[in-house]
Specification:
The complex is a heterodimer.
Chain A lengths: L3 E2 L1 H14 L4 E7 L6 E8 L7 E5 L2 E5 L1 H7 L3 E7 L2 E7 L5 E2 L5 E3 L1
Parallel strand pairs in A: 1-6, 2-5
Antiparallel strand pairs in A: 2-3, 3-9, 4-5, 6-7, 8-9
Chain B lengths: L20 E6 L3 E8 L2 E4 L9 E2 L1 E6 L6 E5 L1 H7 L6 E3 L22 E4 L5 E4 L5 E2 L1 H20 L5 E6 L5 H13 L4 E6 H8 L8 E8 L4 E9 L2 E10 L4 H15 L7 H20 L2 E6 L2 E6 H26 L6 E7 L6 H11 L12 H13 L12 E2 L4 E5 L3 E6 L4 E2 L1 E7 L8 E8 L9 E9 L11 E7 L5 E7 L4 E6 L8 H11 L3 H35 L2 H17 L5 H31 L8
Parallel strand pairs in B: 1-11, 11-12, 13-18
Antiparallel strand pairs in B: 1-2, 2-3, 2-4, 5-6, 5-7, 8-9, 9-10, 13-14, 14-15, 16-17, 19-22, 20-21, 20-24, 23-26, 24-25, 26-27, 27-28
Helix pairs in contact in B: 2-3, 4-9, 5-6, 5-7, 7-8, 11-12, 11-13, 12-13
The chains are: A alpha+beta, B alpha+beta.
């Protein structure tokens, strides 16, 4: 199973990359911090690491390291608006529990 | 669920550690707030998609209620035509100014200005409310911050607020006070032209001289900056505080009025002409001709035509540019980049003439209304720590020299203007007379030689200098300016170690106590409520005393008191009765005390009398 993006998320990533003027794609990952065990990482990517896995969806390169892949398999990246606030949201089928804020999670 | 933004490689923050920062362009006419999200700096819109917030505040007081509703922005602006006396606009012109500076400011014709306790001008509204410039600006800042916090989904960790390059210490301090009152942490105050230069990334570019041409609705500013070793130095500023895009509209409106042969006293037609003029100006930004219907007149106007009308106004700005370049000691061909700021720079003729004057195509890619806020947002993002350390931290410089008064009313400069901040500099002085034990330190700001021509910022005294012959004492005066351009002055007699210091509260700034007081009163009038309660309590007490004593007097006052004593109690009662109708808690308290004092003797006699009465006909043993 791969990592997928919604239309809106893909558009946004492309526009942010254009605005930035450099970068090959966007990195999805997890780090082992946060109040509920793991936290999401969402970063621009300038250089690929040797072990990186690269997916492509809707014209956007999604980069993920093998360790994060275990936790993010099948994740769908959405771009949502909540009132004036807007941003990316991980829809991750592996998640068993989240902390209240949704910034960290357990699998 | 928290929404995520894309970070720079390796810069992801820990959960709950995202630091939200924003840049605020606190303008005379309009204000904006911007932030950096996913690497992109953009201004934030309200729910209706509007980015600019008119810097207009409407204070609504319901009859018979203490509740004050504060309306900021478009709604307040609409209200200005309806009840101008309760609406405040252009407050930036009063920031950090004293009432004495006020006579030239015409914007406040609808409001009454008074001198408030702090020395700041207070604007008195028709509904009786008095607001000082710091409070009004704070209400605007709060509205902007609320928008950002709603948009970003969290509390702001800090803000960068832009100020005109020519703002002096007092005006900067007032701006900072406003932010503090609004509950915002100011990361730094940034000069507006510097912010515009940052928005275009000139701070990361090569060293050179840049001109920032800022033509707003009602003001024109030209700033010549030099970027050197990562520091923007303001070489000179100039402009015209009464020249702007509105003058274009006025000139075009004048043409329309002439064509339609409108009577000169027809105010409605003149107003209509202004609105029409603005539409024509905006339409002709993109097209060459436009059909115009104004009252009985209809015709076609071309871009050439309006350019002819507005050319004299544009030429005036260029005259300012020439003069400012001369002040800066810079030749036109030394200018590398010209940055366009302000909505009026959209007018094609302005761009053409500026290009011709500076001999370089001006930078116009970023929306000129938003460029200052965007630059501030970029700076805020760096300062709050969302960028890696190797990103250059932009420095600013002090706009005017800081000095001290020396004998003969001379201003001795301790920190010259354009010194990058933060900075600390010290200079030694000595005593003038034998046995002199104190020294007055008068902190001044300005470029002139005589103290009377400079702006007085603060005065304080160094006392306790041991008596010595004149010239033997060594008094070290240290000036320290923090990153916001705010000054602390320390004086120390180095042989004895006697010290005195002052954080410069510019003459019209607010003391911490005053800020605290204002903050407290902003907690929903808690203080006033408490006062009202105490007053009520005293009035009740007064009524109780009057009743009790009057009753006692009528019972046996005539028997127990001499005529004089009786009269004294009677008159103090009347006094209390009168005082208790008033609003002074203290006066009522005092009046109650007088009554109690006068009737003390009476009370004890009454006590004796009642005991005697109780004993009549009884044997001691019965008791």
């Amino acid at each position: 199973m791969a990592i997928t993006l919604s239309e809106a998320a893909a558009e946004r990533v492309k526009s942010f990359l254009d605005n930035r003027g450099k970068g090959v794609g966007v990195r999805l990952g997890v780090t082992t911090t946060g109040c509920s065990g793991l936290a999401y990482v969402l970063e621009f990517v300038d250089d690929l690491n040797d072990e990186d896995i690269v997916y492509e969806d809707k014209g956007v390169k999604v980069i993920i390291d093998p360790k994060s892949k275990l936790y993010l398999e099948g994740t769908h990246l959405e771009f949502v608006k909540e009132g004036l606030n807007e941003g990316f949201e991980f829809v991750n089928p592996n998640v068993k529990g989240e902390c209240g804020c949704g910034e960290s999670f357990t699998v | 669920m928290a929404l995520l933004q894309i970070s720079e490689p390796g810069q992801s923050t820990e959960p709950h550690q995202h630091k939200l920062a924003a840049g605020i362009d606190l303008g005379t006419t309009n204000s904006l707030i911007a932030t950096v999200r996913s690497g992109k700096a953009e201004t934030l819109a309200d729910a209706n998609g509007k980015h600019t917030v008119p810097s207009v505040v409407h204070y609504v007081k319901q009859d018979g209620s203490d509740e004050l509703e504060i309306v900021v922005g478009h709604k307040a602006k609409e209200q200005q035509a309806i009840e101008p006396g309760n609406v405040i606009s252009s407050i930036k012109r009063l920031m950090g100014r004293g009432l004495a500076d006020m006579d030239k400011i015409k914007e406040f014709s609808a409001n009454k200005l008074v001198e408030s306790e702090s020395g700041m001008p207070g604007v008195v509204l028709d509904n009786g409310i008095e607001k000082n410039p710091v409070e009004v600006s704070s209400d605007i800042l709060r509205t902007l911050a609320d928008r950002a916090e709603e948009t970003l989904g969290g509390e702001l960790g800090g803000v960068v607020i832009t100020v005109p390059a020519y703002f002096d210490e007092a005006q900067r301090q007032a701006t900072k006070d406003s932010a503090q009152l609004a509950g915002l942490k100011v990361l730094r105050l940034l000069n507006e032209p510097t912010a515009a230069a940052v928005a275009y990334g000139l701070d990361t570019g090569s060293e050179g001289i840049h001109a920032i041409y800022d033509l707003g609705g009602g003001t024109f500013d030209i700033s010549i900056l030099r970027l050197q070793k990562g520091v923007f130095e303001v070489l000179a500023t100039g402009g015209d505080s009464a020249l702007g895009g509105d003058d274009f509209d006025r000139a075009i409106a004048q043409y329309l009025v002439e064509q339609a042969k409108v009577e000169s006293d027809d105010r409605r037609a003149h107003q209509l002409a202004m609105i029409k003029a603005r539409d024509i100006k905006e339409a002709l930004t993109d097209t060459d001709t436009v059909d115009v219907n104004f009252l009985d007149w209809s015709g076609q106007m071309s871009r050439d035509q309006i350019e002819e009308i507005i050319a004299p106004i544009v030429d005036k700005t260029l005259l300012s540019c020439r003069r400012t370049l001369k002040d800066a000691g810079v030749k036109v061909d030394e200018v590398d980049k010209v940055v366009m700021v302000g909505g009026s720079t959209r007018v094609p003729l302005v761009r053409e003439k500026v290009e011709k004057h500076f001999k370089v195509p001006p930078l116009t890619d970023i929306d000129p209304d938003k460029v200052v806020a965007i630059g501030a947002a970029i700076q805020a993002n760096v300062l709050i720590g969302n960028k890696s350390d190797d990103d250059m931290l932009l420095l600013d410089v002090i706009p005017l020299s800081l000095g001290v008064e020396t004998m003969g009313g001379l201003a001795e400069k301790i920190i010259p203007r354009n010194t990058p901040i933060p900075i600390a500099k010290a200079q030694e002085f000595t005593t003038f007379k034998d046995g002199q034990t104190a020294m007055a330190i008068h902190v001044v700001q300005g470029e002139r030689e005589l103290v009377e021509d400079c702006r007085s910022l603060a005065r304080f005294e160094l006392r306790g200098i041991p008596p010595m012959v004149a010239g033997a004492a060594r008094i070290k005066v240290t000036y320290q300016v923090d990153a916001d351009g705010l000054l602390q002055v320390l004086a120390e007699e180095t042989t004895s170690g006697v010290k005195a210091d002052i954080t410069v509260k510019p003459s019209y700034g607010l003391s911490d106590d005053q800020i605290t007081n204002m903050l407290q009163s902003s907690f929903s009038h808690a203080e006033g409520d408490m006062g009202a309660r105490m007053l009520r309590e005293q009035k009740v007490e007064a009524a109780r005393v009057i009743e009790a004593v009057t009753a006692a007097l009528s019972e046996n006052g005539k028997e127990l008191l001499s005529e004089d004593e009786y009269a004294a109690i009677q008159s103090s009662l009347e006094q209390l009765n009168q005082t208790s109708q008033g609003e002074s808690i203290e006066a009522i308290e005092n009046a109650i005390e007088v009554v109690e004092k006068n009737s003390n003797e009476f009370a004890s006699r009454r006590m004796d009398a009642s005991i005697a009465k109780a004993l009549v006909g009884h044997e001691v043993d019965d008791i």
